Amino acid sequence: MTTAGETRRRTPPSLAGKRDRWSWLVIPATVFLAAFFLVPLVAMVIRSVTDPVDAGISNYERFFSQEAYARVLVNTFWIAVLSTAACLAIGYPFAYLMSIVPGRWSGLLLIAVLLPFWSSLLVRTFAWQVLLRDTGVINRFLLDLGLIDEPLTLIRTTGGVIVGMSHILLPFMVLPIYAVMRRIDPEFGRAAANLGASPFAAFIRVFVPLSLPGVLAGCLLVFVLALGFYITPALLGGLGDQMISQLIVQQIQQRLDWGFGTAMSVVLVGITLAILFISSRAIRLQDVFGSAVED
Amino acid sequence: MTSEQPALVLRDLRKTFGSAVAVDGIDLEVRRGEFVTLLGPSGSGKTTTLRMIAGFMSPSGGSIEIDGQDMTRVPPYRRDVGMVFQNYALFPHMTAAQNVAFPLRMRRQSRPDVERRVSEALDLVKLRDLGGRYPRQLSGGQQQRIALARAVVFQPRLLLMDEPLGALDRKLRESLQLEIIRVSRELGATVLYVTHDQEEALVMSDRIAIFSEGRIEQLGNGEDLYDRPASLFVADFIGESNILRGRYEADGADGGWMTRGPWRWRVGRVAAEQAALEAGAAAALVIRPERTRILDGGSDLVPGSNVVDATVGEVLNLGPDTKYELTLEGGQRVSVREPRERGGRELHRGDQVRLTWAVEDGLLLADRDVTST
Amino acid sequence: MSDSWRQPRRILMVGLGALTVFYLLAPTLVIVPMSFTEARILSFPPEGFTLDWYERMVTDRQWSTGLANSFQVALLTAILATVLGTLAALGLTRGRFLGRTAVNALVLSPLIVPVVVIAIGMFGLFVQWRIAGSLVGLVVAHTALALPFVVVAVATSLRTMDRNLELAAANLGADPRRSFQHITFPIILPGVLTGAIFSFITSWDEVVIAIFMTSARFRTLPVEMWEQVRQAVDPTVAAVSTTLLVVTTVLLVLLLVVRRQAPAQ
After folding, report:
1. Per the CB < 8 Å rule, is C95 touching A293?
2. Does ipTM come in above 0.90?
3. CATH 3.40.50.2300: does it fit domain C54-261?
4. Which of A71, A96, C66, C231 has the fewest CB atoms in 10 Å of its CB?
5. What confidence tens digit (pLDDT) does each residue in A27-41 have?
């Protein structure tokens, strides 16, 4: 079961010949995922062309030929782009701050990022609902201060969706950028200063280019995750802010139109994979999503 | 006298990785209680050899015998060979004492036995009070001692050490060298020691095996290697050498000559006999820097010595000695070490001098590396 | 770069940082005080102080079974995902076999496929397999979702572990089984626990798959909450939210402790 001698050479010397029995340990997880993850996805693809029985590609034709669906698709992309931009605008300076403050502080800032990262998406979206409602915290506050006379329309708007989504996705932007920035040797900045660069020039010409891999990874991660969002646009968005996930759930749960719902799911996965495939030429995906295999 | 069984015998040991040959036929016998060092540049196969003896790698050919038993295919955990790793490999989740106890526990020794032998081992390395500490709470030198205690506590048949002092600074290294010698003498242990530091090898070893490109170039004690190097590689690797390259001309039973351009140097009879070169062969004359003398230009030649004209280059003050870098006429560089004497003469860059050495101080060796002549 | 800091820039950066931390934390935390309000509707600032809404959460049949179900699902998910994921990580980092990259991609792919799509795919088939709307179905689905976290956490600790330690163990007389038991496993244990905690949280907070995979008879806390927030909301939802947050936070703190206790390499 060993691959060629090439790979053997790069592996550290270990208990000679006893290596291959480790390989068997991947079988339980592989079988599990094949049965409960891969098979359902394949079944979904099959269903998209066999439901109704003589469907063929008609479900896909329906999706791509009607303007209403095209609008949802465009809208999905648009919201994903805006969320990514918002995350980058907030996340880049924050990651920079994390990378330059002393260790104790950067640890605290990291916790400030990780806590929301791991807390419930539904709870966080609900919190934004409570904040943004016409009778919500923000409007009450502004009314009490007399800054406004009538409640602002904050919820059920594209802006509301972007605010909520970028809040939830921000850690996915900050973490990869920070991971790259902390590895940038501060000596580079000193070297640039020594060579006559002003602090601003050193930042733009040396620091920013070196941090780009993290920026690319963060943008990819946020964008891809944003494409599949369901809960947040459903609770914070208006009718015009519908994203493709909402459409999919609607077709399956309310219309019971499995053929069309699965076809749209296939489109969503296809778009996601295409984006990942294209970006895999520019960045190492294992740096973005992690990997168990060393290369 | 009865012929005692050697502690370790390697026969034609080989290891290849794909097409690369790491160890290319090693033969070695280590006597019981002997301290043998494998010395060589990195990539010369010494660590690979050690790892095969420990059983971490299986040889591509040849055999390994420990105490007369063939161990070539025995897994490492049944070899009963102690090893000190370069980075110590102390178990981070165990205290120092637990680390030392580990090999005894693996051998299912009784609890009182384990306790007694652990404290003996900690005493041996003078760290009795630090048994409760975790490795991260110990200094580099202390970690090193714990690693040593752990490797000897189960009285292995053989103790392997893989550059155990590589990560330490010079002063600590020197004191630990003595410590390792003391411990191994006290235990009468047979030690196979790997290093790339020739001073360390000379200080510690009974015998040294010089490794180059997967082979043992020469095996002997420090004196053998320094005074009677078997090859140009050994001469170059052990100590400093001045190497004059040229062609050898035999002169009957009375030694011979080295020629290079207009120069002709006498080769002693003993040196010529040892080298046993054919007439006209590419050869090198090796003279240690402390065996060369500088004469002022135009001085008379002492009978029984060779001479060559040179120009003084760098002058380096080495404390008790002065080292001169000289350039010979053909452009070759040599160095000379002379003690600094009060009121002695001073040489400066650009001075014209003559370099001289006694005929019997010149070693003749085959020059396998002709391309660089 | 810290030595090139200038005062105005410093103030700007610290201000921005404080604002971002506020943006990250405050919106979520606004829920917490609301859960103690005496008013019958969600209000901020809260009026008075009461634990009524928590009492309601524990006594109300729907909420309390949801809470119990969530715990059960998260615990089972953590166990299953940790076992499968740890084995897979060992196989992937130590094994040398054909298709290793493919298996690696498969194990990590639940991170990449949108959750809605996973939910629909699984639901479609699990209905036929008669495990939809049940504990088994949800645990299976959440395990698939949590596996990547375990694999990455354990693989990372395996990769950062010094392989010489295992050679040393063998050298000192430990056969492979005892070497794993006494050396390898204790050293990767913090990674395994990290994976376990991550999988618990993943399941504990998950709502999209749970919406499909649960039924009127079997609901988790987030699904119950999802049903509520789309209708009229009373402060019980805030109490539930706070509970969800507190459990996650406690687990993350536990994680920090585990990692700090871990032997430094």
Report:
1. no
2. yes
3. no
4. C231
5. 999 999 999 999 999
